[in-house]
Protein 1
Amino acid sequence: MYYYILVLLPFICFLIKNINIKQKYLYYLGFSYIFFFLIIFVSSLRYDVGTDYFSYKEIFELGLTTEPLFAALIKLIKKCHGEYPVFVFIVFMLSLNIKLFIFSKLSYNKGYFLSLMIFCSFYYIAYEMNAVRQGLALSLTMLASFYAIKKEKIKYFITTMCAILTHYTAIIFLPFYYIINQRISKKTALILCTISFILALNNSFSTLINLATLLIGEHDITTKIIAYSTSENFENNILLSFSTIRRLFFFTLILFTYERIEAKTEIKQIIFWGAFISTILYLLFAQVGYFSTRLSVYYRIYECLWISYIPFIFQRKSTKIFITFFFLLYAFSQVASALSLENNGLTPIKLIIFQDIW
């Protein structure tokens, strides 16, 4: 129930902001505060929620090897006599607030809460309640993209390096600064996606993994890549799945609508390249779902920005309503999909001060 409420509340805020009702500001303020209080209260005080909860607890308490910047954050918190719950709180607040900052700067003002609705339906569940280390790295790459728009090159690369040192997969985001100013036609984008799909059918994953391990050499990263790519727990080919249909459907929607949104050219470029690169990465690594999802997420998350603009490109009120409710149903389906996974660790919601809330 909790995860559905997190999707519904921003949707209600979006509706209130865009319709004329008495005491509009009061309702808007009230539902906004309820949403932010709920997500912060539950996420920062959670206990045994998320499949990685105790894995990170072991890393924190036993000093197990992890990425340098993440390890430094752990040492800093422990030096200040902070316990694991303090660590969970700090990581979540850092991760969430950076994302909220980016959404506030780059999403459409009227559709800001639509961005949060989509964020809560997937990214929050996957990367704030589960893979929190990558969730923090994802926030840093989003911040880097903000610096890319402002053409602050040094800040971009410093922030991206911080992301890489938080989670090594963020290295995939390193060239984005130079990519977003390039332009390709819709036809070229579709052709490249088709080629990627064909390559994926012919086992492009193995070639890419072998190339990556060859370039990196002997390193902890190489060990992790080999372990994940050969583990039975992660070896699920998702190329011929509903997930692929959904990805291709949304990429096509973005491809043929992003130029019509009321946004700066730089934001349009981020939305396009985010959709395009995430689709390419998803297809090329689809043989192992873990890599496909984890690598593409750094670019896929910009769909949250696109969704904040898309209802407003239509003139007819009925079309806007249809589009908005379509995204609500899509968000609910995302939550249902996450909760249907076996051993997802997402329910029941337990807090360090209460047990079994939802």
Protein 2
Amino acid sequence: MISASYPNSYPRRISSRRPSSWTAGRLGIGFLNLLASIQFVWFYVNRVPSCMRLLPYEQGRERTPFQYRLLLMLPLRWAHASPWLNSIAASLTAQRGWFHAGVRPEGILEAAIDLTCIAVAGLAARKLYRASSRTGLLTPLIYPLVLVMANGAYSLLTMHLLRFVYDLPSLAFFSVGLCLIYFRTHPLWFMALFAVATLNRETTLLLLLCFAIAQCKRGPAWDWQQIYSPGSLAVLLPLSGYWIGWHLWVVRHFAANPVVPFPGVWLNIGLLLLPIAWPQMIGAFAYLWPVVFAGRRRILDPVLRAWLWVVPVWIAFMFRFGIILEIRIFAELIPYIAVLAVLVFEENLLKKLESKTPAPAAEWAEAGGSA
């Protein structure tokens, strides 16, 4: 784990003996989070229309660039032909009050995958927060905030309300990738995740930037020369080569597929100048990104704070290759931004408590850290 370079003025008090009410509270919060996750995925799969034509996608004939994201092609093909899933889909489709658009066997598999992915993203964000917070005081807020941000990015849209089968898996892959980098697990774990996640979506390229930044913080001071160290290059060079090779292969392999026309940068410039588009565009990350950037000095963890430099790179990347009104294209950063927003709020709260009642503040912080 990356050691923090700031004083921990609120040492955590962790007892091996947990009161039964504490355990019941954790189970209750976990159950509520599960219900909220199910409701989100239920609405997302059942009510948000798919932009992709799943049958051509399963056969490798979907429009590009959608067909380039191949990871779920074979699982969805299996689901389509599964008698078991077809039988369940037929039974659920009969319940039109609950399943307005009907149920397809691929939809059942997609819902199971999406539920797993949103849970992974929320738990990864929780793990990052607990490792980077001085107190862990606001741990119960992390998972619900990830859900709120995911709802805003994938469901609560007035324009371009579309579903893509690879979106929530990409969210989960990116959040796990950040954890593997942050906690400095063995590089092979990160390389394995990168190899699989790249088959799902090409935004994994920006994980390499996060990795490079984290490699430069191994002591009290930043050492940017670490990017060129053998350990860093042993990860960055093969993964960069793999990403480039994979991208060239899919572009060539699916060259005969229909292509989705992209209007280019000028459309995004026009959207920036269109006031009616502002509520949706600014609504990325539940409108909390201005809070994060304005309060970035409150983020005491140096690596998490430095990763903010990835955000403008991401925006530039999407400005060229995406449509910025589709705020789902930034959603892989949801767990990370959720953690930063809570860290900023926590530091502001602790500063106020310290200035007014130092002793109770410390007690509350200790109690929060053990929750």
Protein 3
Amino acid sequence: MAFFCLTITVIVYLLFLLSEKSIKQKQISSFLMIIGIIVLTLFIGLRDNPDIDLDFQSYQQIILQGSSHYYYEHIELLPRLYINIIHNFGLPYFWWFIMMAFSLSLPFLILAKKTDVHKISIVYLGFIFLYFSFSMNCVRQGVAMMYFLCAVTYLQENYRKYFILFLIIAFCFHKSSILWSVLLLLSYFRLDSFKSKKIFIFILITALFCLSLSFAISNISHILTYIGYGDKINNAIAQTKDIEIGSGLGILFRYIRWLLLLIFIPIISEHYNKRFLMQLYLIFIIGMCLDIVTMRTIILNRIALYPQMVELLLYPYLIDYTAKLSKGRFLIIRPVLFIQFLILAFSISKYFSAWNFQTLHII
């Protein structure tokens, strides 16, 4: 695990150094991004930890039993297709995790092609440190969230069809993503300033919606059943106490970084595609408000993760603006960032120290 974290850290650091200027540097950066995706895919795909991960055990049983397993029909189209491929070609069960891991990693290349490798290297790093452990456990939803991230980057007037396309792909991995099709309405908003009254009206409506949601939680079990969470409701209620006990510094850190985005994104928006940033900002606000009313309910909090994950698309702009502001002085900051990456990497490695990995032949 430590080797994985070190490899990812070095790759991202090199992407920082090579992301500017010449075509050759951009080509090297793209190559490094591909290497990073291969490392990520193999790391997730070759894990083998049935004794410590209940979700892993469940997926393993579904893969091995195939269509005879009672939950097989409840799994979405693409994960079920991967199970069929395993059985049709006689592959080891962990090839399902490799295919899912590749599906998780592919959006990074899609995002890099749409924007640039430098920005996506920051998204990549943010994913590793903030959402990686979630994606290791909630495999299908983790993949769906990445395609949702692709979808929101196309949430503009002339690209609605791509938003719909990526949301359909996300739905094919996890049904919960379809709830966020309502965000298509944002593409019809004509927002030119963060001081616009429409922004405040939108935030007010979002806040009222979140408050209403907190009162409606006990009456939406049929919706949760439809999107694939029905069998987990009782477990979630039982685990609520664990959330209350185990969520201290993590919540504090989350709200500190969210507060930074809340304050500084409107300030730096003048230097970038303002309308695009405003759309991301509003989606992020939805996620932040939902977190407040769903943090003690595992199932609903997972649904709220979709708009929360948009924070990954905002950090590159914040870091890029800081770099431009500091000009040459940012060269001094880079080694400091690298040391911080290393510290975070090895901290994560301790968290996953109990995980085992496949050492057998791939086929």
